[in-house]
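Cross-check.
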Amino acid sequence: MTDTDTDTDTDSGIAFGRPVIVNALGQLDNPNTPAARAAATQLNPASDQLAVDARAIADAHASGLTAVNITLGYTMGDLPPYEHTLEEIAVWDRIIEAHPADLLKVRTTADIHRAHREGRIGVVYGFQNAVAVGADPAHLDSRVATFADAGVRVVQLTYNQANHLGDGSMAPANRGLTPFGRQAVEVLNDHRLMVDLSHSGERTCLDAARHSRQPVSVNHTGCRALADLPRNKTDEELRLVADRDGFVGIYFMPFLDVTGQATAADVVEHIVHAVDVCGEDHVGIGTDGTVTAVDDLDAYRATLAEHVAARSAAGVGAAGERADTYPFVVDLRGVDQFRDLVRLLEKRGYRSGRIEKILGRNFLDYADRVWTA
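Predicted model, tokenized:
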């Protein structure tokens, strides 16, 4: 396949060498700096509080990462959604401009291919809440156009709670897509932005997948058939997204096991189930985490308890979030996380072609279907 070196990775046994690895939802920062630890206690830290430092970049390179969809802009809280989102875009533009040899802003799939060839990390701008598009139908197109022109490529319709487009996974009414939400999906289609349904409620996800003219995605989720938690998707949702030529990314999150103590083996089981439901051409990874591992888990536990309590008090948490469950899979983190996943998938009998699709080719192909006019 193109964009794959032929050198063998002798540690993993993979014969396709340096594959394209695209994290459909992740982070690109170092969580171990004092500023990052302080920001981690906040409900909604801003992008300028992240530590996109030499270690974060070096670790991303060491992991083999080709590109990552990062979250910016308004997600929750009392911030002005539109203005805050524009500020966040400017912050990330400055971060990328400060590291031209290492980072590349992604607008097209060609940019991801370029990042792979040049040994850089592609950065995809994405939202985890679409509130910033506003509530006025008369201004919807101009706002989406502004975001698209600024480089945003992924727009998740809702976070866990309900908004004026639809319901999130934790909204008890489980409404479908609202009339404004349907209009928003149409405008996102017009501007060829990904419609991401990761945090949406079940009916909102099904409605949006059916209403969208373009394929839709669920960039970071698990399979509810294996762990019955709201943040995971039912087989009906997974199948519909795939049947409409979309993409499903499996996360490395505690929601993969109802106890909250998810392991690397759980990640593999959810990938295998998703492939069984969706087919091997529609499944990838969206870890929802960093490449740089937390160094001091004991100290982090105290920070985590404070953060989980703040999310619960604000009504934005998800079922399965607890102070005693890390928001990552402990035995699948750090710079070896993708190589470790490859080894585990090989043990399940997956051949290099299928693994290559899961690591990044499927996201690339999906992005090409949506982003290319």
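Strands lie at 22-26, 67-71, 103-105, 121-127, 152-156, 194-196, 217-221, 247-250, 283-285. The radius of gyration is 19 Å. Passed to J.P. for a second look.
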